[in-house]
Amino acid sequence: MKRGIILLAWALAGCGGGGSASDSTKDSASDSGAAAVAAASLSAKPLAGNQASLALAGAPAGRYCIRQVTDQPLASDSCFGDQLQQVQTIANPSDTARVTFTAWVLSNTGSVSRHASVSLPGKTCSAAAYASIANTSLPAVCVITSAGESMLRLEPVKAPVSTANFLRYVNQGFYDQTVFHRFFRGSPNFVQGGSFTHGNGGYVTKNSTLAAIALESTVQTGLKNEANTIAMARTSDPDSATAGFFVNTGANTGFDSTTTRDGYAVFGQVVHGTSAWASLLTTAVPGSGEVQNPASPLWLRWAYQIQ
Predict the structure, then answer these.
(1) Do 73 and 203 lie in a common domain?
(2) Mind listing the pLDDT tens digit for each residue in 130-179?
(3) CA 37 to chain centroid
(4) What is the CATH number of the domain that holds 207?
(5) Do 297 and 198 contact (CB within 8 A), yes or no?
(6) pTM of structure
């Protein structure tokens, strides 16, 4: 296939959960002994409306307290109970800080020990966002931006390589606290991100952690760069996509593959919160044309996989 005009090549050469959090930590002082300590864990699955489903594994006999408060509870604390699985509300939801839940065990001898901890995004999507993917088994990702929330439904059958790549970055937490750096309003229409953070008064490249992937052309997948779709950004090399992505805020037929143009790989749709992407674009570009690295950064706060 011949190489086409590259529309999204700017600054992409150096660019970053499953449904449950995986960064559980263990307490070697657990009453359960070495074998049980090795299996000790606390998992967390973000739920709608700033709630979390929490589950203990490898817990020794006793009573259990799971809470966001970091201080060790007393043996007399009312938080101790028999449930190994709990749903809790995130206290003080945050745009910038992850929340940590810790599980404590009250042993049958009356001693309190830390079992495990797990962290998850500081906010979750709303019930309306979750409802938008209630009737599909396709992978879905909640994205919370400085302009509002959005739900992405991905296409692992039609675009398996791009979908798997994006989900790996999502589940690494790579996109959390990154910024959108490129906006085009008019023709084409898109919001691009996944490649930069912002600090010390400027944009900082966030280096990708995975190898580049092969292009899945729109001819191959049948997925077009229509309004409210998500696609992989890349450099002039069609097989260079890493963490960078863009959302088509309008139909961009010039990004589709042809016999003379490589195009850009579409791998999902925005099924809730299209207004968030429109707001990001109009904030960065009040009129028309292209804006790179706006003076006031526009944030991707959290991205996590729901299913």
Answers:
(1) no
(2) 999 999 999 999 999 999 999 999 999 999 999 999 999 999 999 999 99
(3) 30
(4) 2.40.100.10
(5) yes
(6) 0.88
